[in-house]
Amino acid sequence: MAKITLSKLRHSYYPNPKDPSDYALKEIDLEWTDGGAYALLGPSGCGKSTLLNIISGLLVPSDGRILFDGNDVTDLAPDKRNIAQVFQFPVIYDTMTVYDNLAFPLRNRGRSEEIVHERVMAIAEMLEVTDMLQTRAAGLSPDNKQKISMGRGLVREDVNVVMFDEPLTVIDPHLKWKLRSKLKELHQRVKATMIYVTHDQTEALTFADQVVVMQEGEIVQIGTPVELFERPAHTFVGHFIGSPGMNVLPAELRGGVAYFGDSAVALEGPVQGQPAGNIEIGIRPEFVSLGDAGLPATVTKVSDIGRHIVVECQASGAKINAIIEGEAPSQGAEVNLVFDQSQTRLYVDGWIATQAQEAAA
Fold first, then answer.
1. Which of residues 187, 208, 230 is at a domain's end?
2. Any idea where the ABC transporter domain is (predicted)?
C-alpha cells in the first residue's frame, strides 16, 4: 500500500504541444493517502483512463512527477511499480481452474505453496467463490469471471495500489449492485489503496471515500459523495451528479441581489467579490418545492419514479425540476416554486461564487 502523489502532472498526445487545448490532461496536483478508496469520475474523453495509465506506468507524462510514498516512480516500468490492475474486461486464463487463476500472481513471484494456498483461500472466501475453486474459468458466468479478475488483483498483499478501470461495464445491471457492494466490503477488509475509474456516478459514489470529478482533462472537484451532492463547486458537478441533475438557471446581479427573470432569488449567503462573467443560479431539484407563493411556473411534465415524483416546469423560458412527495399537479397547471435558500447557490463562469452563511459568520 502507498500514498500516491501527483505533482504538476500534464500529458499531451502531441509531440510538441503549444497551448492548453493540446493537453489531454491539464496540470494536476493530487495526493491520495495510504489505504484510501478513491474514484475518478467523469464522462468519456475527460482524461480518466489517461491519468490511470500514467499512474500504472503504461504512459509517461509530458510533464510532472508521480510518487509512491515519496519515491519518484515517473520513469519506472509498470512491473517495477508493484501495482495490480483490474480492467473493463476480465483478464483470466480460461484453461486454468479458479484456484490456479487466483494463485498465478503469487506463483509468478515465487511465493511458497503454503502462502499461495493461504491467500487464495482467504480471497476466495471474501469473493464467495470457494465452491468453484476447481472449476475451469471458461465455464464461469461473466460476473464470476470478473470476480476472479478482481481476486487476481487483490491476492497479493504487497501491492502499492489496486486500480480498477471501469470493471463493471460488461456486468448485467441486476448484478452490478452486488459486485459494487462486494468491492466496498473487500476494501474495508484488505485496507489497500484503491483507485476506481468510472463514468457511472452510482459506482463512484457507493465505492469511494473521496471522488475526483474530471472534465476535459481537468479536476473540477474533489470531495466525499455528500460534499459533491450538497455543494457542487462547479455547475458541471451539479449536472453530472444527481438524477435529475442540478437546476442551473441564467441570472444577473443587480445591486448585489440575484435575479432570475424578474424575480429576486435569495441565495445561501453573500457573493464573493465583484463577479464578472456568466452568472447562473444553481439549486438541486430535491430543494425545490411547491408553495402558495414563490416563482411562477407552468408544469410541463410529471414523472412518478416510485420513491418520489419529478415535476418538470417552465419559468421565464428555463426548465426547472422539482422533486416532491405526495399529490402531484397535473400537466399544464400553474404553480409556485419555492427554493430552499440554504441550498441556492450563485455560480460565475461555472464556479461557485457564494459563501454559506455559517462559513461567512
1. 230
2. 4-241
Nearest residue to 190 (alpha-carbon basis) of 164, 224, 151: 151
CB atoms within 10 A of CB 275: 16
What the block records as the C-alpha cell of 40 is 475518478
Please indicate, yes or no, whether residues 186 and 282 belong to a single structural domain of this protein. no
78 cis-preceded (ω within 30 degrees of 0) = no
**CB-based contact 281:257 (threshold 8 Å):** no
* Residue 269 and residue 225 in one domain: no
Note the pLDDT tens digit of each residue in 34-79: 888 899 999 988 999 899 999 999 999 999 999 998 999 999 998 8
Residue 350 sits in the same domain as residue 209: no
- Domain containing 268 — which CATH number? 2.40.50.140
Radius of gyration of the chain (CA): 24
Give the domain-ending residue among 195, 230, 265: 230
H and E: helices and strands count for the chain: 9, 22
**Mind listing the pLDDT tens digit for each residue in 235-269?**
999 999 998 999 999 999 988 889 999 899 999 99
